[in-house]
Structures are given as structure tokens and as C-alpha cells.
Amino acid sequence: MRFFIALDLPAESRQEIESVQQQLKQLLPHLRLTDPNKLHLTISFIGEQADGLRPGLIKLISKATDNLPPFEITPAYLDGFPNLHYPHTIWLGVKGEVDKIILLTERVRDELFKLNIEVDERRFVPHIAIAKTNDLQIDTHTEAKLQALMQDKQFMPIKVSSVKLFESIPDHDFHRHNTLAEVELI
Question: Considering 127, 141, 172, 177, which one is annotated as catalytic?
């Protein structure tokens, strides 16, 4: 199975982000938008592992969320990987209780390391991927339009009250996501 751990988004937040996606698509018509039903904030992509690892991953999430209360984040700015001028992924960064996401991510990484699962060591930037692209170069004029798109946006805060274990199933050029487990924050 192809596993990942993530924060799911409520329907209202997905609708707000879909509005940004549509405006983005008008500026950059060749983008491939993330399906609004699959929008999430990834804590850790684990990748292909044996199905038997599922109980261990659920236990890992429970341990990583121990004494972590619910918290709020809010989409706040637009950026890209590796950068906004030559992106392969365009994403929304978040503000708010980002320290709780960082703590959760570090705990998950520590527990994955104990299970001898390779961990992405790059600096973690909490984000919601909203579009993919190939060979796109964004000039300063277009970048200014992208930033203007975000200036007047007032997103509702997202209350994070659980962490989910997902499986990602290849489906032609896309992936379906199934929730395998949900661990509540208390």
C-alpha cells in the first residue's frame, strides 16, 4: 500500500480553496488543479509499504498526537516548489498554530525512523498543494497578479481536530485517496 499521513480539510475550506484554484487557472490555463475533494495538508508521505504496517502506523499517529490539543490554521499565501518562478507544484501556505504542525511532523518523523522507514529530511513547510505543472516559468508580472489574487482573500480558520492515515491508489494519471484511520486530537 502507498501510505501518507495528513490533515484533512473541511468541505467549507475546500470550497474556498477551489475558488482560488479557479482564479489561478484563469491566470495560468495549463495548470492541472488538485481535485478539491483530495485537498489536504500532508504531514508525512510514507510511500509503498506492506499492508501489514497499517496497525503500526495507526499506533505511530496515536503516539505522535499524544497531548496535542486541537488547533487552528488558516490558508494565507501562495508559493511553489521548488519556487514560484519555476514551479512544479503551486501551494497555499498556512498561518496560525503552525508550531503544532511542526511538532506533529517531527514526532511522526521520529517514530517512522524507529520503524526503519526512510524519512524525507528536507525542511518541512506546511502547505496545501493546489496545482501541478510542467515547464512553467512565472514572470514578475504574473507573480504580482498571483500575489494580488491572495491579498483580499479572507479564509475561514481550519480547526484541526484529527490526523488521518490515508492510502493513495494510482488511477490512470491521478490517485484516489482512501482514509484508513483517523486519530482524534484531545
Answer: 127
Range of lowest pLDDT (36-40, 52-56, 92-96, 168-172): 168-172
Structural domain count, the chain: 1
Q: Which of 30, 40, 85, 175 is catalytic?
A: 40
The pLDDT mean for the chain works out to 95
175 is catalytic: no
Q: Which structural domain range is residue 97 located in?
A: 2-184
Query: Residue 173 gets which letter from DSSP?
Result: T
| Residue 29: per-residue pLDDT | 95
CATH number of the domain that residue 158 is part of = 3.90.1140.10
The answer to whether 88 is a known catalytic residue is no
- Nearest CA among 4, 36, 13 for reference residue 178: 4
Grid cell digits, residue 170: 494510482
